[in-house]
Write a structure and sequence with these properties.
Order of helices and strands: EEEHEEHEHHHEHEHEE
Number of strands: 10
Strand content: 25-35%
Oligomer: single chain
Helix content: 25-40%
CATH superfamily: P-loop containing nucleotide triphosphate hydrolases
CATH architecture: 3-Layer(aba) Sandwich
Number of helices: 7
Strand order of the largest sheet: 6-7-8-3-9-10
Distance between the termini: 29 Å
Largest sheet: 6 strands, mixed
């Protein structure tokens, strides 16, 4: 019987890309699990496979072999349409480059995943306003991305990840484009979110950023290991 607090698990997960008919292995036999309320970080050098692993966990890609189970559902062999449904329901993304749509306002960017969920307009507005207040962005709700600072852009991305109440928040180098003061601000927000019960998995190449997490993993040459305290 599965552990009730187990959120996700990979079993012998491998990933290869193909150059013509020749396979190029990227991930090898990944065994990985996260429990609800975990705050974990994965570190690794460029080319180690950490982005590939994040893409699979985020249901942006599928493994070549092995399995990936999220919320008790095997998603390793789902169709692109099914993966999109899982992403929009269960996963909130925070990207290094923010990935905000320039023509939308702050509120419009945060609202977008709720539109994909076909929620009623009134509920969307209530949830967006709540997320913006939580991230101290309500007074910037009508600004566009080019009218706010880098820290405000990342807070907008966090609000967009939170607004749909996801099972998992995936943060891909969330402080990579920020100065040290703003980095501290964003990490404090992630600490607060985890303290409120949100499950966070962060990819980073910065040791001091990874140390904020409660569980730390390293990936090298496509092989993952957990660091002991």
């Amino acid at each position: 019987m599965a552990e009730p607090n187990l959120l996700l698990q990979t079993d012998r997960l491998c990933k290869s890309y193909f150059l013509g008919e020749e396979p190029l292995p990227v991930l090898f036999d990944i065994h990985f699990s996260l429990f609800r309320g975990d705050y974990a970080a994965i570190m690794g050098p460029s080319g180690s496979g950490k982005s590939t692993l994040l893409n699979i966990i985020g249901c942006l890609d599928t493994p070549t072999s092995g399995d990936y189970i999220l919320n008790g559902l095997s998603v390793g062999r789902r169709s692109p349409a099914e993966l999109a449904e899982v992403r929009n329901r269960d996963i909130g993304f925070i990207f290094q480059n923010f990935n905000l749509l320039p023509k939308l306002t702050v509120a419009g960017n945060v609202e977008l995943p709720l539109i994909y969920q076909n929620l009623p307009k009134k509920e969307r507005k209530e949830r967006v306003d709540d997320a913006l207040r939580r991230l101290s962005l309500f007074d910037r709700r009508n600004h566009r991305p080019n009218e706010i600072s880098g820290g405000q852009k990342q807070r907008t991305a966090i609000a967009r990840a939170l607004v749909k109440a996801p099972s998992l928040i995936l943060a891909d180098e969330p402080t990579g484009n920020l100065d040290s003061a703003t980095t501290g601000e964003i990490l404090a927000i992630l600490d607060e979110l985890n303290g409120a019960g949100n499950t966070i998995l962060m990819i980073t190449h910065e040791q001091e950023v990874a140390e904020r997490a409660h569980r730390r993993f390293t990936i090298r040459d496509g092989r993952l290991s957990e660091k002991s305290e």
